Amino acid sequence: MTSYPRLPDPGATAAAEPGDGPPAELTHADAAGRVRMVDVAAKPETRREARAVAVVRCSEQSRRLLREGRLAKGDGLAVARIAGIQAAKRASWLIPLCHALPLTAVDIDIAVGATVVVAAQVATVARTGVEMEALTAAAVAGLTVIDMIKSVDRAAGLESVKVVAKSGGASGAWADGGRVAAAPPAGVVTVSDRCAAGARADQSGPLIVAALERAGASVVARVVPDQVEAIRSAVLELVDAGRRLVITTGGTGLSPRDVTPEALGPLLAAPVPGLAEAVRAIGARAVASAALSRSVAGVVERGGRRALVLAAPGSPQAAAETAALIAPLAAHIVDQLDGLDHAPPAAASPAAVRAGGAGPEAGGVGPDTGGAGPEADGTDGRIVEARVGPQPIDPSALEAAVRRAESGSVVSFVGAVRDHDGGRRVTRVDYEAHPAAGRELGRLLAAWLAERPQVQAVAARHRTGALAVGEVAFAAVVATAHRAEGFAACAELVDRVKAGLPAWKRQHFADGSDEWVGS
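Predicted structure:
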């Protein structure tokens, strides 16, 4: 696991309610109901990755022979890896509506433990994702394992095949079925005289709204006429309401009524010309007139709030292309707006100094670095630290950091690497985490604190990298007024983090085998 797991089709619709009949529009069928391959031309080419896992349950004897390379058919692990790689490249041949993709990497990792776990990591730079390629690779590699051991184990079976992580595309990064980082609150403003007057239905705005919602954002939409003050008022209203990303559609051409750039220009404290150029470049692939668009982008600062505002062209095609470009970047944009993209030096961080001066770590989050994101509103600085990184963890320093004069109880949990698992001796553990894990830990703590007003302060850290037996991998500390609520809160917090943090560990055993498991 050396790489990690952010537009679905513009025609995608929500599932119909029971009794409503078929959806009004199907992504893989035309207006006559005939099956088709979806046109993904409007999507940008981005790096996309997926990791799928297949589990083969088989006898102890077959696992031993497989691990030792003593099967009658030869080296089962090597054959299964090759089969998985070949299968990934042939997914579009096997699955009718799957696009043929230029794969840039396929990695098949097989761990033989209590079961045989096949993990397939697939990557591409394309306009659609590689989940099906990863699933096909894992499944075929698992079936190949069964074929290699069937002479000694007729009961071997493929127990499960599923995607455990993916990245790239408008839906964002996912791990274990949950979104790693949702897009921030957003706003969409359609600029059109006719739409504002009700003379024409808005087609462009809803496309952008749907794309942002698929990325996990809550979205507020507005329709205004081609008037400078109306445009400016709608954008500022959305920024004042806490919308961190605002996209306008329409009014960027050369017509005398196209005044969106003039409306937005004075609001932009920090222009982002590269984003506007990217919108024009994507449109130019389809129509030469896209070069005439006067799209603008930049940061609006108002009342202590910072939001990115982007003006997109008004055609439905351009709206879909813009949404496909911006949705995968939304969470990262807000990280940069909040200063979370670059962790501050330890000397500038009181919490980090109290915690042993660990210095900047990937995804570090704490009060000194802007809090845990927008979702942390109302935590009142109770998140002392929430970090994921390679620096050693000092539990006593975390305890000191959360202790308050009013704290009657400081309860901590320390998770260390143990020397055994399932009867096998563990020699070391490698921890890996998604690049957004630090931010997600902060969000987990913020959401948990919103439900726990009795918690006075909390700190949590998770390590990454190679850890020896006995080293601390995770620590969480909770300060409360009373002992009982402290114990209960700490136990609940550990379970919450374990279920939601996108981190994984690779256990290495004394017999030379290893396996990936969720942390």
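Summary: The longest helix spans residues 131-149.
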